[in-house]
Each structure stands twice: as C-alpha cells, then as structure tokens.
UniProtKB/TrEMBL annotation:
InterPro entries with a match to the protein in the record: MFS_dom, MFS_sugar_transport-like, MFS_trans_sf, Myo-inositol_Transporter, Sugar/inositol_transpt, Sugar_transporter_CS
Protein name: Inositol transporter 2
Keyword flag Membrane: yes
Chief place where the protein resides: membrane
GO cellular component, one term: plasma membrane
Source organism per UniProt: Panicum miliaceum (Proso millet)
Domain Major facilitator superfamily (MFS) profile positions: 1-536
Amino acid sequence: MEGGVHELDGSTFKECFSLSWRNPYVLRLAFSAGIGGLLFGYDTVLTTSVAAAAMQEMIVSMAVAGAIIGAAIGGWTTDRFGRRTSILVADFLFFAGAVVMASATGPAQLVVGRVFVGLGVGMASMTSPLYISEASPARIRGALVSTNGFLITGGQFLAYLINLAFTKAPGTWRWMLGVAAVPAVVQFGLMLFLPESPRWLYRKGRAEEAEAILRRIYSAEEVEREIEELKESVAAEARERGSSEKVSLAALLRTATVRRGLVAGVGLQVFQQLVGINTVMYYSPTIVQLAGFASNQTALALSLVTSGLNALGSIVSIYFIDRTGRKKLLVVSLVGVILSLGVLTAVFHETTSHSPAVSAAETGRFDSSLTCPDYRLQSPASSGGFWDCTRCLKAKSTECGFCASGAGKLLPGACLVSNATARDACHGAGGRLWYTRGCPSRYGWLALVGLALYIIFFSPGMGTVPWIVNSEIYPLRYRGACGGAAATANWVSNLAVAQSFLSLTEAIGVAWTFLIFGGLSVAALAFVLVCVPETKGLPIEEVEKMLERRELRLRFWAPRAGDADGKESGKTAGV
C-alpha cells in the first residue's frame, strides 16, 4: 500500500454499492450534488436542438461563454462561501435561465436565458465534483464522482429522446426548455438539508461540524485517520503561508505542489475538449447528415443512439475508475479515440471524393428557376467543369442542395437552390431524397460505426476522469481557485471548438477536421503518459504528499510498490 491506503481489488465496484447500502448518507450526498450534471447535459443538447440552424453556433457559443465566467466565479465562491452555497447559486441560475428561455419571444431572449444557464453550468461543472470528492471515502471516491458524469450524459440522452419525440409537434419547445427548472428546484431543496463539505468547514475553523460530518461518512476505524490527516494539511498551510485566506496567481505558480497539480489538471481539461467530444455531442445530427443520411428524423434517432452510448460509457467508468485507476483508463480511452478518428477521417475522405455526379438531364427535370446559380453559369464541358454533389453543396454564390436520382441515391442527381420550394419539388418527384449537409454514400453506416466507437472509448476515460482528477489533485488551500482555473480552461477550449467546427468543415472538409482532432488526441496521449499522476485510492491529503515527491509512473499498468523503502516502480521527474 502507499501512504496507508487500503488495497483495491476487483471488488471495489461491489464495495461502492455495499457501502452505499450500509451508509445511504454517502450516496445521498453524491446524487444530490450530481443533479447539476443532469441539468448540464439536458440543457446543452436541447437548446441547440430548438434553435434555428442559422443561430446554432451563436446559441452554443453564448452558453459556453457564460460557462467560462461561471467557472471562474465558481472557483472563488467555493473557497469563500463554500461548496454547498455555490451549488445553490448555480441552481438559481439554472432556474432563472430556464424560465427566461421558456418565455422567450425572440432569439435575443433565448440567448439571454442561455447565458444564465451557462453561468450555472460553469459553476456546477467544477463545484459538484469537488463537493462529491470531499465528501466521499477515498477507496470509492472515483466511482461516486463518476455519478456526476453519468448524470450529465443521462441528461443529454433525455434531451435527444424528448427532441425526437416532438420533432413535428408545434409549440412544444417552450415546456421542453422550461422543464429544466424542475431538477434545479429539486436539487435546491435537497441541498438545503445537506451539510457543507467537511474539508471546507475544517479549513474555516469549524472543526466540530467537520468532524461530525466525517463520522457519518467514514467507519469508526477510518475516521480518526482522516481527521488527523486533515489537521496536518491545514497546519501545513498555516506554517507555509502564515495565512490561509489570500490566494494569488503568483502563490499558485510558486508552490511546486500546486504547479504540478495545475499542469495535470488544466492539461486534462483542455485536451478533453481538443479531442473533439463536444463537436460530436453538440453537432451529432449534423455529422450524421454529413455521413449521407438525409432525413432529420433519422439523424436525430441516430444521435439518440450516440448519446445513449455516452451514458453507457459513464456507467463503465463507475465500474472501472477505482478498479483500474485513472491513468490506465485515460490511456485506453485515448488509444481508442485515436483509432476511431482514423476511421472517421478515412470514411469521410472516401465519401467526399466519391460523391454522386450532378447530371444536366436530372437538373433539367425541374423548373430552371430552381437550378443552382453556380451550376447554371458553369459550363460542364469546360476545363474543371465536372460537378458532383460535394461541389454542389459548396456553391459560393448561394446555398444549394442535391436532389438524388429517383433510380438510386448513388446515381447522378440534380443541383438545385437550397430552399423550401426546391426541397418540396425534389420530394414530389418520385420520392427523391434531398441533401443539404452531406452527400449520399455507401459508406454512411461505417461513419456511424466510427462515431459509436469514438463515444464508447471516450466516455469512460476522457469523459469523466479529467473531472475526477481535478476534484482530488489540489491542496485544500488552493482547491477552489485551481479547480476554477481548470474548469475555465475547459470551457475556453470548448468555446473554441464549438465556434469553429462548422466553419472549419466548410473550409477544409470533414475528413481533414477529424484528422486534426486525431493529431490532438495523439498529443493528449503523450501528455497523459508524462504529466498525469495516478491518484487511485489515495486520501485527498495523501495526494498532496504524492505531488511533493512528483512520482511519475510511466509503467502505469504495474502495481504500486510499498512506501516503506521509498521506492516506486517507474521513473521520477519534476515539473
């Protein structure tokens, strides 16, 4: 064992539920704090679904901009006013945003409500995992923090399910947005009757309250050790700085333990976004259409499968996170992500380079006023005049769509202007299919396989582990400030990806976009191997001691050696 930590084996998952059964108070803390994740996932998907296509990037980006501010503020409020108080404030923001969006009379009001919700998402994204982490026994901490990730993905699945059920029902979007206020009210009520984080209370000098809560969480033989380690951590802070109140950027960067934690924590949060996950989740209906599926209904149904796999992956994380460890799960996750992105790159390259041709005869079947202007002006006989579906959809003067041949979607079709009249004319000409985002392809099913594999590999590792690591890797004194900084970095990266994805695919194509994500995933794998320590089973105060030694175990699959002789398998390096 390391640092007096209990040895973990394959029974950890069963132990988690056994402990929760014997002590339901722990599970109540975790799920009550994790309801914010359900709100986060539900609202992220649903708002972009009900927004007009022309505003999709703006709606998503404004929410993420709000989350950036919320995460930064949350880092301060969690240290100043407490973890529970910050969750209550986030609930109020969720509720206010849901009401504003449900009563929106125009796009501007929808954006305002989205900003409110974004502020709540940003605060909850770093506060909920932190609260759960500080109120969980060390040996099952990863599994309990993973419940927050499960509720996020469960909220996304619920949003796609509701959106699919009401895609053709008019006027339902208001209550679909407004219903997000219900979980916010539920969580607010539950958190009023739950205690503050015991570690925050201890740091604020409220030792009796903290010890009373710890005795409800830990067994009698464990609680004294936890209290003693907490005393040592707080005493070390007082000796180091002479004050436990002032936290500055300079102090963070001067402290080796904090600096090493920030490198790992912030790096994981940034790479979580740069490997492209929110591109898949935010725009999965669009990606499915790019794979050659014309129907919006079909695209939404397939996106429901994608979000379901994401939720399933979170359950896998709950099972493995305290059994195999954080680092091993990250490595396996990223290897799978890289392979999946390679498949997607190849499929979309093949789809784009072998799209159906545009036929003058097929286009001539429709009124000439519906012909795509660029195609009408371009002489097919001239040099470089060959037109196919891909070129049709990239027409520069106006948006154009491809009407597939009635004899088969892979045969030459018509290039028409992209409007309701042309779409209806296409559908009315023998039930043809109308494409505006992607072209017909025989490889569409393979793109879906690649997306499914991406989600299956991403969700258990890169989907949940960065939040778990950031909830446990920082010293108590700096936990709020560092967690807020890492969450802010996550949302800044999220904004960059969300703002640029659709524009990037139009500029360089979907295949090259996925190739870029693949290259970033390789960089993420190298980063994890070199910079991220293993924190499995370590009490939170013990993590700080581990960072002081900065033991980087490159042979992450090997068991930890004992601390008695001061040796560690693997190599040691400093940051």
